[in-house]
Specification:
The protein is α/β, with parallel strands linked by helices and about 160 residues long. It is built from 5 helices and 4 strands. The longest helix is centred in the C-terminal third of the chain and has 18 residues.
Length: about 160
Amino acid sequence: MDADAAGAIGLIVVDHGSRRAESNEMLELMAGRVAEVVPYEIVEPAHMELAEPSIATAFGRCVARGARTVVVSPYFLLPGRHWTQDIPALVREAAAAHPGVAYLVAAPFGLHPLMAQVVGARVEHCLAHARGEAEECEVCAGTGRCRMEVAEAAPARTA
């Protein structure tokens, strides 16, 4: 299907969903960042479970905003059951309420070459923070979690 046949494209960035509001808010921020760099005017966040907006809610929002094709991008590192089974089932169910709208579940990040750069950048930032050369990143801000620790000797085992 070419872009003209697809019509307006809506993009849903979906994560697992969390009981932690802070984690869910991070996905909303990421969806906003994605919206700044992709060529699609319609970008919505969604959570697979545990929080709103759900995939069904985000799918409906895309259609309400004019999407004729909805692409669901799993914000997941590797292809597991959520990508092969759970997300496709939830997307099929959501799409059933919108006859005529095409949809695609895209691949997770996997071995994308830029992921190695992301890992390297995160590690370098954490090391710089531990040395006192950088502020905490957005993930660790206010938690005090990103700090260097030194292992202590394990207690001697008695026979």
